[in-house]
Design goal:
three-stranded mixed beta sheet, DNA polymerase, domain 1, 9 helices, 46% helix, 14% strand
């Protein structure tokens, strides 16, 4: 009888304690469920992101338009990837034709130069002189500001070592006026060198 009575008291005490602490216990239970749920969601999300294609994370690569003409097998405007080089544009145009001026290619065409949108690449034929803005000039006498060395640029009137370095670091150029637009040379200096420079 005493044992039964004692058990009853213990059970009643437990019921009273549970009743007294039911709100904190319920909150603790909810917290535990949230922690377990968060852990399951986190592990599932990590697995999904591992399987996610890298290409879609990087995004779509930008395309640029480049005009390739002159002594190439298939002149035209070509769509290339941003970061492509002059060599890639010439390959897209079917490569250099047999009629191309080899001295010009070896001295003036920088195959490793990065392309820019709207860029013009012209490969002259053997013995050809290029026409720039309607004026016929001897291309070999001009300094190509896209490919010239520091020494070649410094040989131009009004261009010192600092300006030559700026011109090199700010390449490529689509037209000689870019030197003025980008404020790399003054108007006075530009007037002195404009007939001695080219961009291709």
């Amino acid at each position: 009888m005493l044992i039964e009575h004692g058990l009853r008291i213990t059970v009643l005490s437990l019921v009273d304690m549970l009743d007294k602490f039911k709100i904190p216990l319920a909150l603790a239970g909810v917290g535990l469920i949230l922690i377990i749920g968060g852990w399951i969601f986190s592990s599932t999300f990590n697995k999904q992101s591992e399987n996610f294609p890298k290409e879609s994370v990087v995004g779509v690569q930008k395309t640029i338009s480049v005009d390739v003409s002159g002594a190439v097998n298939n002149p035209g405007v070509y769509q290339l990837k941003e970061g492509d080089r002059v060599e890639d544009a010439i390959k897209a145009a079917g490569g250099i034709s047999e009629l191309a001026s080899q001295p010009y290619l070896s001295k003036r065409v920088n195959m490793a130069q990065k392309l820019s949108d709207g860029m013009k690449i012209y490969i002259p034929m053997e013995g050809e002189t290029g026409a720039i803005f309607g004026v016929t000039v001897d291309q070999s006498a001009q300094v190509n500001i896209n490919t010239a060395s520091q020494a070649e640029l410094e040989a131009l009137p009004g261009i010192g070592p600092v300006t030559a370095a700026k011109i090199i670091s700010d390449r490529p150029y689509q037209k000689i006026d870019d030197l003025l637009i980008r404020k790399l040379v003054s108007k006075t200096v530009f007037e002195k060198i404009k007939n001695s420079i080219s961009v291709f």
